[in-house]
Amino acid sequence: MRRDAMKKLIGWKNSEHRKPMVLRGARQVGKTWLMQEFGRTQYESVAYINMEGNQQMERLFDLDFDIERIVDGLEIFSGVKIEPHKTLIILDEIQEVPRSLTALKYFYENQPGYHVIVAGSLLGVAHHSGVSFPVGKVDFMDIYPLSFVEFLQAIGEEPYADLIMAPEIDLGIIGAFAPKIIDQLRTYYIVGGMPEVVNRYLDEGNLLTVRDVQQKILNAYEQDFSKHAPEVIVPRVRELWYSMPAQLAKENKKFIFRQVREGARGREYESALLWLEDTGVATRVTRVNSSALPLSAYENRDIFKLFFLDVGLLGASSKLDPVVVLEGGRIFKEFKGALTEQFVLQELRAKGIHPHYFANDDSRGEIDFIIQVANSVIPIEVKSETNTRSKSLEAFIDKHAPTNAIIVSMNDYERTSIISRVPLYLTDRLVDLIEPGESGPVKSGA
User: Fold this and answer.
1) Is the Cβ–Cβ distance between 256 and 264 less than 8 Å?
2) What is the pTM of this model?
3) Fewer CB within 10 Å: C terminus or N terminus of the chain?
4) Cα angle value 386/392/393 (rounded, 5°)
5) Which residues contact 401 (CB under 8 A, 6 or more apart)?
6) How buried is residue 89: exposed, middle or buried, by Cβ count under 10 Å (0-12/13-18/19+)?
7) In whole numbers, what is the pLDDT of the chain averaged over residues?
Protein backbone atom coordinates (compact mmCIF):
# COMPACT_ATOMS: atom_id res chain seq x y z
CA MET A 1 0.00 0.00 0.00
CA ARG A 2 1.05 3.59 -0.55
CA ARG A 3 1.65 5.96 2.33
CA ASP A 4 2.06 9.71 1.98
CA ALA A 5 4.75 9.46 4.65
CA MET A 6 6.98 7.67 2.14
CA LYS A 7 7.41 10.89 0.16
CA LYS A 8 8.43 12.70 3.33
CA LEU A 9 10.97 10.00 4.16
CA ILE A 10 12.48 10.24 0.68
CA GLY A 11 12.81 13.98 1.19
CA TRP A 12 14.47 13.29 4.55
CA LYS A 13 16.95 10.90 2.96
CA ASN A 14 17.98 13.49 0.37
CA SER A 15 18.17 16.43 2.77
CA GLU A 16 21.54 18.04 3.47
CA HIS A 17 20.27 18.75 6.99
CA ARG A 18 19.17 15.20 7.75
CA LYS A 19 19.07 14.10 11.38
CA PRO A 20 18.13 10.69 12.78
CA MET A 21 14.41 10.20 12.16
CA VAL A 22 11.98 9.31 14.96
CA LEU A 23 8.60 7.89 13.90
CA ARG A 24 5.84 8.27 16.46
CA GLY A 25 2.47 6.55 16.38
CA ALA A 26 0.20 4.04 18.06
CA ARG A 27 0.78 0.34 17.86
CA GLN A 28 -0.23 -1.28 14.53
CA VAL A 29 -0.52 1.90 12.44
CA GLY A 30 2.19 0.58 10.11
CA LYS A 31 5.43 2.12 11.37
CA THR A 32 7.50 -1.06 11.03
CA TRP A 33 6.21 -1.80 7.52
CA LEU A 34 6.85 1.79 6.47
CA MET A 35 10.46 1.75 7.72
CA GLN A 36 11.22 -1.59 6.11
CA GLU A 37 9.57 -0.68 2.81
CA PHE A 38 11.42 2.63 2.78
CA GLY A 39 14.70 0.79 3.32
CA ARG A 40 13.91 -1.87 0.73
CA THR A 41 13.06 0.63 -2.01
CA GLN A 42 15.50 3.46 -1.27
CA TYR A 43 18.70 1.82 0.06
CA GLU A 44 21.17 -0.85 -0.98
CA SER A 45 20.76 -2.63 2.36
CA VAL A 46 18.77 -2.48 5.60
CA ALA A 47 19.97 -3.30 9.13
CA TYR A 48 16.79 -3.93 11.14
CA ILE A 49 16.96 -4.40 14.92
CA ASN A 50 13.98 -4.81 17.24
CA MET A 51 14.92 -3.53 20.69
CA GLU A 52 12.06 -5.12 22.61
CA GLY A 53 13.43 -7.61 25.13
CA ASN A 54 16.83 -7.33 23.47
CA GLN A 55 19.46 -7.72 26.18
CA GLN A 56 22.32 -7.62 23.69
CA MET A 57 21.28 -4.15 22.57
CA GLU A 58 20.94 -3.03 26.18
CA ARG A 59 24.51 -4.04 26.86
CA LEU A 60 25.74 -2.56 23.58
CA PHE A 61 24.39 0.90 24.37
CA ASP A 62 25.18 0.76 28.10
CA LEU A 63 28.95 0.89 27.57
CA ASP A 64 29.41 4.29 25.93
CA PHE A 65 28.37 6.34 22.89
CA ASP A 66 31.25 5.46 20.60
CA ILE A 67 29.28 5.31 17.34
CA GLU A 68 31.79 3.21 15.43
CA ARG A 69 31.72 0.60 18.20
CA ILE A 70 27.91 0.72 18.24
CA VAL A 71 27.74 0.32 14.46
CA ASP A 72 30.07 -2.69 14.69
CA GLY A 73 27.65 -4.23 17.20
CA LEU A 74 24.63 -3.48 15.02
CA GLU A 75 26.40 -5.15 12.08
CA ILE A 76 27.07 -8.30 14.08
CA PHE A 77 23.52 -8.50 15.43
CA SER A 78 21.76 -7.78 12.11
CA GLY A 79 24.20 -9.67 9.87
CA VAL A 80 24.27 -6.68 7.51
CA LYS A 81 27.33 -4.65 6.52
CA ILE A 82 26.47 -1.04 7.42
CA GLU A 83 27.79 1.57 5.01
CA PRO A 84 27.24 5.34 5.31
CA HIS A 85 24.59 6.67 2.88
CA LYS A 86 23.95 3.14 1.52
CA THR A 87 22.48 1.31 4.51
CA LEU A 88 19.36 2.24 6.45
CA ILE A 89 19.69 1.47 10.17
CA ILE A 90 16.26 0.71 11.71
CA LEU A 91 15.87 0.55 15.49
CA ASP A 92 12.32 -0.57 16.30
CA GLU A 93 10.65 -0.21 19.72
CA ILE A 94 13.59 2.01 20.63
CA GLN A 95 12.06 3.14 23.93
CA GLU A 96 12.89 -0.32 25.32
CA VAL A 97 16.58 0.67 25.35
CA PRO A 98 16.51 4.30 26.57
CA ARG A 99 20.24 4.90 26.05
CA SER A 100 19.81 4.15 22.36
CA LEU A 101 17.61 7.26 22.17
CA THR A 102 20.42 9.29 23.69
CA ALA A 103 22.83 7.76 21.17
CA LEU A 104 20.92 9.43 18.32
CA LYS A 105 22.53 12.70 19.37
CA TYR A 106 25.98 11.23 18.73
CA PHE A 107 24.96 9.73 15.39
CA TYR A 108 23.97 13.25 14.34
CA GLU A 109 26.96 15.09 15.80
CA ASN A 110 29.76 12.60 15.15
CA GLN A 111 28.66 10.32 12.29
CA PRO A 112 25.96 12.06 10.19
CA GLY A 113 26.73 9.80 7.21
CA TYR A 114 24.80 6.96 8.86
CA HIS A 115 21.08 7.01 8.01
CA VAL A 116 19.15 6.07 11.16
CA ILE A 117 15.39 5.75 11.55
CA VAL A 118 13.72 4.63 14.77
CA ALA A 119 10.20 4.01 16.01
CA GLY A 120 8.33 3.00 19.11
CA SER A 121 4.70 2.51 20.04
CA LEU A 122 5.27 3.86 23.53
CA LEU A 123 7.64 6.74 22.79
CA GLY A 124 5.25 9.25 24.30
CA VAL A 125 4.99 7.21 27.48
CA ALA A 126 8.79 6.89 27.62
CA HIS A 127 9.18 10.64 27.25
CA HIS A 128 6.85 11.37 30.16
CA SER A 129 8.55 8.65 32.22
CA GLY A 130 11.80 10.60 32.25
CA VAL A 131 13.51 9.23 29.14
CA SER A 132 15.35 12.15 27.57
CA PHE A 133 14.99 12.86 23.87
CA PRO A 134 18.00 14.46 22.14
CA VAL A 135 16.11 17.69 21.48
CA GLY A 136 17.28 19.46 18.34
CA LYS A 137 19.32 16.44 17.23
CA VAL A 138 16.50 14.37 15.66
CA ASP A 139 13.67 14.79 13.18
CA PHE A 140 10.14 13.67 14.08
CA MET A 141 7.30 12.28 11.99
CA ASP A 142 3.89 11.22 13.28
CA ILE A 143 2.30 8.16 11.66
CA TYR A 144 -1.48 7.68 11.69
CA PRO A 145 -3.89 5.12 10.21
CA LEU A 146 -4.41 5.27 6.46
CA SER A 147 -6.31 8.38 5.40
CA PHE A 148 -9.34 8.07 3.14
CA VAL A 149 -7.23 8.80 0.06
CA GLU A 150 -4.63 6.22 1.12
CA PHE A 151 -7.47 3.75 1.68
CA LEU A 152 -8.79 4.36 -1.85
CA GLN A 153 -5.32 3.74 -3.26
CA ALA A 154 -4.92 0.57 -1.19
CA ILE A 155 -8.18 -1.00 -2.38
CA GLY A 156 -7.52 -0.28 -6.05
CA GLU A 157 -9.68 2.83 -6.40
CA GLU A 158 -6.83 5.09 -7.54
CA PRO A 159 -9.01 7.05 -10.03
CA TYR A 160 -11.16 8.35 -7.15
CA ALA A 161 -8.04 9.17 -5.13
CA ASP A 162 -6.61 11.01 -8.14
CA LEU A 163 -9.80 13.07 -8.48
CA ILE A 164 -9.61 14.11 -4.82
CA MET A 165 -5.90 14.92 -4.93
CA ALA A 166 -5.80 16.65 -8.34
CA PRO A 167 -3.95 20.00 -8.18
CA GLU A 168 -7.13 21.57 -9.55
CA ILE A 169 -10.30 19.81 -8.45
CA ASP A 170 -12.73 19.40 -11.36
CA LEU A 171 -16.15 19.78 -9.72
CA GLY A 172 -17.96 18.55 -12.81
CA ILE A 173 -16.11 15.24 -12.93
CA ILE A 174 -15.93 14.66 -9.20
CA GLY A 175 -19.63 15.51 -8.85
CA ALA A 176 -20.51 12.87 -11.45
CA PHE A 177 -18.73 10.21 -9.39
CA ALA A 178 -19.74 11.56 -5.96
CA PRO A 179 -22.25 8.75 -5.22
CA LYS A 180 -19.55 6.12 -5.83
CA ILE A 181 -17.02 8.00 -3.72
CA ILE A 182 -19.55 8.37 -0.91
CA ASP A 183 -20.15 4.62 -1.02
CA GLN A 184 -16.42 4.10 -0.55
CA LEU A 185 -16.43 6.66 2.28
CA ARG A 186 -19.08 4.64 4.10
CA THR A 187 -16.96 1.55 3.56
CA TYR A 188 -14.03 3.45 5.08
CA TYR A 189 -16.21 4.27 8.10
CA ILE A 190 -16.42 0.49 8.66
CA VAL A 191 -12.91 -0.63 7.71
CA GLY A 192 -11.01 2.43 8.90
CA GLY A 193 -7.31 2.88 8.24
CA MET A 194 -5.50 0.31 10.36
CA PRO A 195 -3.22 -1.49 7.84
CA GLU A 196 -3.96 -5.03 9.05
CA VAL A 197 -7.71 -4.40 8.79
CA VAL A 198 -7.38 -2.90 5.30
CA ASN A 199 -5.34 -5.92 4.21
CA ARG A 200 -8.01 -8.31 5.52
CA TYR A 201 -10.67 -6.36 3.62
CA LEU A 202 -8.52 -6.56 0.48
CA ASP A 203 -7.98 -10.30 0.89
CA GLU A 204 -11.56 -11.27 1.62
CA GLY A 205 -13.77 -8.33 0.58
CA ASN A 206 -15.97 -9.10 3.59
CA LEU A 207 -16.97 -6.23 5.84
CA LEU A 208 -18.13 -8.59 8.57
CA THR A 209 -14.74 -10.27 9.05
CA VAL A 210 -12.92 -6.95 9.46
CA ARG A 211 -14.64 -6.60 12.82
CA ASP A 212 -12.76 -9.68 14.03
CA VAL A 213 -9.41 -8.07 13.19
CA GLN A 214 -10.47 -4.78 14.74
CA GLN A 215 -11.51 -6.54 17.93
CA LYS A 216 -8.09 -8.22 18.12
CA ILE A 217 -6.43 -4.81 17.84
CA LEU A 218 -8.68 -3.42 20.57
CA ASN A 219 -7.83 -6.41 22.75
CA ALA A 220 -4.11 -5.82 22.14
CA TYR A 221 -4.48 -2.21 23.28
CA GLU A 222 -6.23 -3.37 26.44
CA GLN A 223 -3.42 -5.82 27.12
CA ASP A 224 -1.00 -2.91 26.81
CA PHE A 225 -2.89 -1.17 29.61
CA SER A 226 -2.00 -3.94 32.06
CA LYS A 227 1.45 -4.59 30.65
CA HIS A 228 2.80 -1.05 30.31
CA ALA A 229 0.69 1.41 32.30
CA PRO A 230 1.63 2.04 35.94
CA GLU A 231 -0.40 -0.36 38.03
CA VAL A 232 -2.02 2.42 40.06
CA ILE A 233 -3.68 4.01 37.00
CA VAL A 234 -4.69 0.85 35.08
CA PRO A 235 -8.30 0.81 36.41
CA ARG A 236 -8.80 4.45 35.44
CA VAL A 237 -7.23 3.92 32.01
CA ARG A 238 -9.77 1.16 31.41
CA GLU A 239 -12.67 3.28 32.67
CA LEU A 240 -11.78 6.09 30.28
CA TRP A 241 -11.29 3.68 27.39
CA TYR A 242 -14.64 1.97 27.88
CA SER A 243 -16.41 5.31 28.27
CA MET A 244 -15.17 6.88 25.03
CA PRO A 245 -17.66 5.39 22.51
CA ALA A 246 -20.72 6.33 24.56
CA GLN A 247 -19.38 9.84 25.16
CA LEU A 248 -18.74 10.34 21.44
CA ALA A 249 -22.26 9.12 20.64
CA LYS A 250 -23.78 12.05 22.55
CA GLU A 251 -24.95 15.11 20.66
CA ASN A 252 -22.75 17.17 22.98
CA LYS A 253 -19.46 15.32 22.83
CA LYS A 254 -17.73 17.16 25.66
CA PHE A 255 -16.18 14.51 27.88
CA ILE A 256 -18.06 14.23 31.18
CA PHE A 257 -16.21 12.44 33.97
CA ARG A 258 -19.45 11.81 35.88
CA GLN A 259 -20.43 9.52 33.02
CA VAL A 260 -17.28 7.48 33.60
CA ARG A 261 -18.14 6.87 37.22
CA GLU A 262 -20.57 8.54 39.57
CA GLY A 263 -18.77 11.23 41.53
CA ALA A 264 -15.65 11.04 39.36
CA ARG A 265 -13.52 14.18 38.98
CA GLY A 266 -11.11 15.13 36.24
CA ARG A 267 -8.02 15.40 38.42
CA GLU A 268 -8.38 11.72 39.40
CA TYR A 269 -8.04 10.73 35.75
CA GLU A 270 -5.40 13.12 34.42
CA SER A 271 -2.55 10.59 34.57
CA ALA A 272 -4.69 7.91 32.91
CA LEU A 273 -5.81 10.36 30.23
CA LEU A 274 -2.24 11.42 29.52
CA TRP A 275 -1.23 7.76 29.22
CA LEU A 276 -3.91 7.11 26.57
CA GLU A 277 -2.73 10.18 24.67
CA ASP A 278 0.92 9.19 24.92
CA THR A 279 0.23 5.76 23.45
CA GLY A 280 -1.57 7.40 20.53
CA VAL A 281 -4.85 5.51 20.98
CA ALA A 282 -6.80 8.60 22.02
CA THR A 283 -6.77 12.25 20.95
CA ARG A 284 -7.83 15.05 23.26
CA VAL A 285 -9.44 18.00 21.43
CA THR A 286 -9.47 20.88 23.89
CA ARG A 287 -11.93 23.75 24.10
CA VAL A 288 -11.10 27.36 23.29
CA ASN A 289 -13.45 30.23 24.11
CA SER A 290 -11.83 32.84 21.87
CA SER A 291 -11.05 33.23 18.18
CA ALA A 292 -7.95 35.30 18.90
CA LEU A 293 -4.47 34.19 17.87
CA PRO A 294 -2.80 32.00 18.86
CA LEU A 295 -5.61 29.58 19.65
CA SER A 296 -3.37 27.58 21.98
CA ALA A 297 -3.26 30.55 24.35
CA TYR A 298 -6.99 30.18 24.96
CA GLU A 299 -7.31 26.41 25.34
CA ASN A 300 -8.69 24.79 28.46
CA ARG A 301 -7.23 21.29 28.74
CA ASP A 302 -9.74 20.40 31.44
CA ILE A 303 -12.63 20.75 28.97
CA PHE A 304 -12.28 18.53 25.92
CA LYS A 305 -13.62 15.90 23.54
CA LEU A 306 -11.84 12.54 23.53
CA PHE A 307 -11.59 10.78 20.18
CA PHE A 308 -10.44 7.32 19.09
CA LEU A 309 -7.39 6.61 16.96
CA ASP A 310 -9.43 5.23 14.06
CA VAL A 311 -13.01 5.42 12.81
CA GLY A 312 -13.13 1.68 12.14
CA LEU A 313 -11.97 0.90 15.67
CA LEU A 314 -14.61 3.28 17.03
CA GLY A 315 -17.31 1.37 15.17
CA ALA A 316 -15.95 -1.96 16.37
CA SER A 317 -15.73 -0.75 19.97
CA SER A 318 -19.33 0.48 19.71
CA LYS A 319 -20.49 -2.91 18.34
CA LEU A 320 -21.91 -1.20 15.24
CA ASP A 321 -23.15 -3.63 12.60
CA PRO A 322 -21.41 -2.87 9.26
CA VAL A 323 -24.73 -3.37 7.46
CA VAL A 324 -26.23 -0.54 9.50
CA VAL A 325 -23.39 1.77 8.50
CA LEU A 326 -23.88 1.02 4.81
CA GLU A 327 -27.63 1.64 5.02
CA GLY A 328 -26.80 5.21 5.92
CA GLY A 329 -30.09 6.54 7.21
CA ARG A 330 -30.41 4.63 10.43
CA ILE A 331 -26.80 4.95 11.49
CA PHE A 332 -26.77 8.67 10.88
CA LYS A 333 -29.82 9.09 13.07
CA GLU A 334 -28.44 7.04 15.94
CA PHE A 335 -24.69 7.62 15.69
CA LYS A 336 -24.36 10.39 13.12
CA GLY A 337 -22.04 12.70 15.00
CA ALA A 338 -19.63 10.07 16.27
CA LEU A 339 -18.41 8.47 13.04
CA THR A 340 -18.47 11.66 11.00
CA GLU A 341 -16.68 13.82 13.54
CA GLN A 342 -14.15 11.04 14.17
CA PHE A 343 -13.49 10.86 10.42
CA VAL A 344 -12.94 14.61 10.08
CA LEU A 345 -10.63 14.64 13.11
CA GLN A 346 -8.57 11.80 11.58
CA GLU A 347 -8.23 13.57 8.25
CA LEU A 348 -7.10 16.78 9.96
CA ARG A 349 -4.55 14.93 12.10
CA ALA A 350 -3.20 13.12 9.05
CA LYS A 351 -2.52 16.56 7.53
CA GLY A 352 -0.59 17.62 10.63
CA ILE A 353 -3.43 19.77 11.99
CA HIS A 354 -4.40 19.37 15.64
CA PRO A 355 -7.72 21.20 16.02
CA HIS A 356 -9.50 22.60 19.04
CA TYR A 357 -13.22 23.01 19.40
CA PHE A 358 -14.97 26.27 20.25
CA ALA A 359 -17.61 26.99 22.89
CA ASN A 360 -18.55 29.96 25.02
CA ASP A 361 -17.93 29.83 28.76
CA ASP A 362 -21.54 28.72 29.26
CA SER A 363 -20.86 25.83 26.81
CA ARG A 364 -23.25 27.30 24.25
CA GLY A 365 -22.48 28.27 20.67
CA GLU A 366 -20.31 25.20 20.11
CA ILE A 367 -18.32 24.81 16.89
CA ASP A 368 -17.21 21.23 16.18
CA PHE A 369 -13.61 22.15 15.30
CA ILE A 370 -11.60 25.32 15.01
CA ILE A 371 -8.17 25.43 13.39
CA GLN A 372 -5.41 27.95 12.89
CA VAL A 373 -3.93 28.19 9.40
CA ALA A 374 -1.12 30.74 9.13
CA ASN A 375 -2.68 33.92 10.58
CA SER A 376 -6.29 32.85 10.10
CA VAL A 377 -8.72 31.13 12.45
CA ILE A 378 -11.18 28.86 10.65
CA PRO A 379 -14.30 27.36 12.26
CA ILE A 380 -15.45 23.96 10.96
CA GLU A 381 -18.94 22.54 11.38
CA VAL A 382 -19.40 18.82 10.69
CA LYS A 383 -22.68 17.53 9.27
CA SER A 384 -23.22 13.84 8.55
CA GLU A 385 -26.14 14.42 6.19
CA THR A 386 -27.12 17.09 3.66
CA ASN A 387 -28.72 19.56 6.08
CA THR A 388 -26.02 22.20 6.45
CA ARG A 389 -27.84 24.90 8.41
CA SER A 390 -25.82 25.81 11.52
CA LYS A 391 -27.07 28.45 13.93
CA SER A 392 -23.87 28.14 15.97
CA LEU A 393 -21.70 28.87 12.95
CA GLU A 394 -23.89 31.79 11.89
CA ALA A 395 -23.60 33.27 15.39
CA PHE A 396 -19.82 32.70 15.38
CA ILE A 397 -19.48 34.51 12.04
CA ASP A 398 -21.60 37.43 13.24
CA LYS A 399 -19.54 37.85 16.40
CA HIS A 400 -16.00 36.97 15.30
CA ALA A 401 -16.05 37.85 11.58
CA PRO A 402 -13.69 35.12 10.30
CA THR A 403 -12.38 35.38 6.76
CA ASN A 404 -13.30 31.76 6.11
CA ALA A 405 -15.65 29.19 7.60
CA ILE A 406 -16.25 25.59 6.58
CA ILE A 407 -19.20 23.20 6.66
CA VAL A 408 -18.39 19.61 5.73
CA SER A 409 -21.32 17.40 4.78
CA MET A 410 -22.62 14.99 2.15
CA ASN A 411 -23.49 17.95 -0.10
CA ASP A 412 -21.54 19.03 -3.18
CA TYR A 413 -18.92 21.76 -2.98
CA GLU A 414 -20.19 25.34 -2.82
CA ARG A 415 -18.43 28.57 -1.92
CA THR A 416 -20.06 31.77 -0.68
CA SER A 417 -18.26 34.94 0.36
CA ILE A 418 -17.22 33.37 3.67
CA ILE A 419 -18.52 29.80 3.95
CA SER A 420 -17.10 26.88 1.99
CA ARG A 421 -19.45 23.89 1.90
CA VAL A 422 -17.09 20.97 1.39
CA PRO A 423 -18.07 17.33 0.71
CA LEU A 424 -16.91 14.98 3.44
CA TYR A 425 -14.85 13.04 0.91
CA LEU A 426 -12.82 16.22 0.25
CA THR A 427 -11.89 16.72 3.91
CA ASP A 428 -8.27 15.98 2.95
CA ARG A 429 -8.36 19.17 0.86
CA LEU A 430 -9.94 21.51 3.41
CA VAL A 431 -6.95 23.81 3.70
CA ASP A 432 -6.60 23.96 -0.10
CA LEU A 433 -10.25 24.96 -0.47
CA ILE A 434 -10.21 28.01 1.82
CA GLU A 435 -8.02 30.52 0.05
CA PRO A 436 -9.21 33.92 1.35
CA GLY A 437 -11.45 35.66 -1.11
CA GLU A 438 -11.07 32.88 -3.69
CA SER A 439 -13.02 29.80 -4.69
CA GLY A 440 -9.95 27.68 -4.08
CA PRO A 441 -8.26 25.22 -6.45
CA VAL A 442 -11.48 24.22 -8.20
CA LYS A 443 -12.90 24.56 -11.65
CA SER A 444 -16.14 23.93 -13.53
CA GLY A 445 -19.01 25.31 -11.55
CA ALA A 446 -17.16 26.62 -8.49
Assistant:
1) no
2) 0.94
3) C
4) 70
5) none
6) buried
7) 93
